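As the next step, I selected for study one protein, both as residues and as discrete backbone shape codes, as given directly below:
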Amino acid sequence: MKKYISCFLMVVLCILSCKTEPLNSPGDAKESIASKESIAALESTINPFIAIGNAENKTLEVYHWWNTNWTPSTAYWVWTPTTAQGFSSTGIANFDGPYDHKVRYVDGFPGKATSAVGIVGHRWLGIVAYDGTYARGQKLWGTYWSAAQDPSVHGCELLPNGNLAVASPGNTATGYGAWVRIYDTSDVNVGNDFVSVSLPSARAVSWDPDNNLLWTAGRDDNDGKYYIMAFTTGTRTNPQLIEQTSRRTEAPGQYPHDISPYYGDTNKLWYADHSGLYIYNKTTKQFLPATGASNRAQLKAAGNQDGDGGYLVETKADPIGCGTYCTKKVEFYNPVTGVLEFTRIASHAQIYRARVFTRPYN
């Protein structure tokens, strides 16, 4: 992990404190430490964006991590499906807010988008444009289920070819789900072309561009154990899920919740389950517990910012402040020492996951 930037931030804050004018005005989306010069310096050092899925307002909200006042009026981008973006009334009605969301460079939508956002939530899957010819937030693809068939999709990954990988732990109320799937998204009018493998307790997927593998974790019903595993994914119009069994490793605990890139080392992944947070080495197949206070059980999401000195960003359910599946807090840790550095509060929100919102896969 590269050099940490707390000292740099202190210098920036001291410089800004000498100014007589206010740093921002009401509604300014960059209100925390914010001359244009200091923001440019930080953006060149650390990816600036964190995205939260807000089930309360049914919105995806993207914030600068240094913004100390997380409200929709100060967000960098707020999105929810609309008819103007190409979504049907059914698609809008079925959207209960994002459970997972990732922005990636893609080559599967030529003439439309050079990067896109995959968004999933229980019974809703979608891809929208981020950069390119299409307006930001415009629909590229989507599919939805009725409440009676809700598979409780928790996780997603947007593959480089534009297909969408998704993970469902299973929905005991409806009997649907408990799989990992890849959807062929090449035709915006076709939402049921997919390949699927049974994997109870699957809640996350992560693409590995160095090995061309999709990583996930779940329970093997043959022995009842939990594993981290990797799959090849086929092509744009012929998706496949073929496990590379030599990559399979028994997980340290039960109920896997998240798998994320370890920015700064392409041979590692962040892995979170009910027992704690770990750094997984793809070569040695070892799980190293995260350091200090950052190693917490039952995290919903964990991942470090790409760039020099990025923070480790975590979300964990807060039963008192929000509920058993949500929180209003996003917590930023020093990834080397495990010390909690600061917390961002979105008091208006119900957050399942916060994601480092960055286009590169690793």
Q: What stands out?
A: The helical segments are 6-17, 36-43, 89-93. The two ends are 13 Å apart (CA to CA).
